[in-house]
Amino acid sequence: MGFEPPTLNLYEKLRARERASARPGAHVHRSRAFYESVFPNHTVDAVSGFEDVHVHRFTDDGKYLICFSRNQHDLVVYRFRGFGEAETPRRAEAAGPRTPRDARGGDRDADGDENKPPRRAPATTRDKYFDLLYTRPLTVDADLLARDFAVTILEGEYLLVASSTPAEAPPRDAAARERTNANEAGTADVVPARGPR
């Protein structure tokens, strides 16, 4: 009997879960494994407002969005507010001050001038779904953060990021290229994933 690789078919996973027996003495509902195939129930397309950062990924728990600044010197972390928060206005905006109405039915402010429709900058989807948790500069001078490297460690408590110093100019011959690659510096920083405490 040979080893069979696990299937990626959801139907076969569910059938195997139904056929599997529980550990001796365990209740069947408590011994079942967590679903491996989870599908989203809500999708947001064309998210705007992230022009000033490079979005890397969500943390493993899905609560924080890890980003790097465009100049690759700062770590930017956003807290995900959830989809329910985006559907309802914030309490502060909902309970804002009201202006008195005059006899003609128009709105007047404290100076007695007619109010025009409120001039608010259109909210981006970033503002609807995310709150800026913190921005932390991690590199100095010519060091640049590696945009494609960020690892959560110790159960999401810390975030490991890497930085490097780019070479002045790419050398033209192979021997000089090897010397430059050997002299190129690299560092790694560990920062708390949930921000300063």
Query: What's the total number of strands?
Result: 7
Distance between the termini: 55 Å
Q: By helix and strand content, what is the structural category?
A: alpha+beta
Largest β sheet strand count, sense and barrel closure: 4 strands, antiparallel
* Radius of gyration (Å): 26 Å
How would you characterize the overall build of this protein?
The protein is of the alpha+beta class. The chain has one domain (38-192). It contains 6 helices and 7 strands. The strands form 2 sheets. It has a 4-stranded antiparallel β-sheet. The longest helix has 10 residues, at 10-19.
Could you list some keywords that capture this structure?
197 residues, alpha+beta, three-stranded antiparallel β-sheet, 6 helices, De-etiolated_protein_1_Det1, ubiquitin protein ligase binding, ubiquitin-like ligase-substrate adaptor activity
Short account of what is shown:
This protein has helices at 10-19, 28-31, 83-87, 91-94, 125-129, 174-183, and strands at 53-58, 64-69, 74-80, 130-137, 144-153, 158-164, 186-192. By secondary structure, the protein is α+β, with helices and mostly antiparallel strands.
